Amino acid sequence: MPPRRKPRTQHYIFAHKLVPSLFFRDPSGFVGALAQEGDALLRRLWVEAARLATTDASEASTDAIDLPDVPASEVMGLEGGARLVVLMLPEPIAALEAFFVGLLIPGALDTSGAIGSVYTLELSEDHHRKRGTMLCGWTAEGAHVNYAFCPPPALKEFAAAVGHVWAGQRASGNAPVN
To answer: Suppose 123 and one of 1, 61, 65, 92 were both cysteines; which one would form an S-S bond, judging by CB atoms 3.0 to 4.6 Å apart?
Structure first.
């Protein structure tokens, strides 16, 4: 069997460190900045992730990804008035790299006190190196969560899986709160 590929540091830092930390610092402000600046903000963050990758080579492989492959975003509505801002990343080539990062902002009528959530759809490999996907996420405290859903790497399926997990979190009272 060929050796496992390590995730590219820029890709990993963008999806798993930089975006979640900025989002949890100020969810509405970050999503508002994305709405105003769009791709320009994402390009700056992508470049920042590349810069951080060169200073944190212990995380993973430092293969930089060219700027033409910067992420794009799309806003989708979910049940209960929640909004999901989906960042679409360059094609993953190694486990832990993400296809999508989803930033969920609860609806105005949400009474759970939720501040928002970060979800990722990651490329995964089992112990036989069979590739698939895994719906995961990050908490405001920096913990990685595996939701054990494996939707295909398509935008609508990702949004549906996030909507299902979010509805379950709200119903059980486990939605992230401030």
So the answer is: 92
Sequence-distant (6+) residues with CB within 8 A of 80 are 106, 107, 109, 110, 167, 170
Q: Which two tokens stand for residue 161?
A: 């899986």
Q: CB count, 10 Å around CB of 26?
A: 13
Per-domain residue ranges for the chain? 9-172
Distance, in Å, from the CA atom of 87 to the CA atom of 81, rounded to the nearest integer, reads: 19
The string of pLDDT tens digits covering residues 139-167 is 999 999 999 888 899 999 999 999 999 88
Query: Bigger pLDDT: 178 or 135?
Result: 135
What is the spatial distance between Cα 74 and Cα 95, in angstroms, rounded to a whole number?
A: 24
